[in-house]
Design goal:
InterPro entries: 4Fe4S_Fe-S-bd, 4Fe4S_Fe_S_CS, RnfB_subfamily. The chain folds into two domains: about 70 residues, Alpha-Beta Plaits (2-Layer Sandwich); about 45 residues. The protein has four helices and six strands; from the N terminus they run ββαββαββαα. With about 120 residues, the chain is of the alpha+beta class. The chain has a two-stranded antiparallel ribbon with strand order 1-2. A two-stranded antiparallel ribbon has the order 3-4. The two termini are about 15 Å apart.
Length: about 120
């Protein structure tokens, strides 16, 4: 989540599940895996928290868990995202992307682009 307090906006930055993820390629411990159904995920038995994946992620979709110093990639809680459940304003909605039309996806991206332009982000 990127917070822009000056304009009152929080913009989620999530893993885009790249087709050929740089994060997996650069991981010296082979801790980042790609699964057809799960997408990109972390094998926490292998992750040593070197942060190489954070450095190469082109969108900043990988974070660091301050508690255990290991990286985190949002996996949408395997289809049951807790952020949606816990949002006090009920501003979040989880929609399976496969059920969205191309038109709806384009509209969403256009709204985000317009917001970013207005906010000068």
């Amino acid at each position: 989540m990127v917070k822009y307090e000056e304009i009152g906006a929080n913009i989620p930055v999530l893993c885009q599940k790249c087709e050929d993820p740089a994060c997996a390629a650069v991981c010296p411990m082979d801790a980042i895996k790609v699964d057809e159904s799960l997408g990109t995920y972390i094998d926490y038995t292998r992750c040593v928290g070197c942060k190489m994946c954070i450095l190469v992620c082109p969108i900043g979709g990988i974070g660091l868990n301050p508690a255990n110093k290991k990286v985190i990639i949002c996996d949408l809680c395997k289809g049951d995202p807790q952020c949606v459940k816990s949002c006090p304003e009920q501003a979040l909605e989880y929609v399976d992307v496969s059920k969205l039309s191309i038109k709806k996806r384009r509209e969403g991206l256009e709204k985000l682009a317009k917001f970013l332009e207005v906010a000068k982000i």
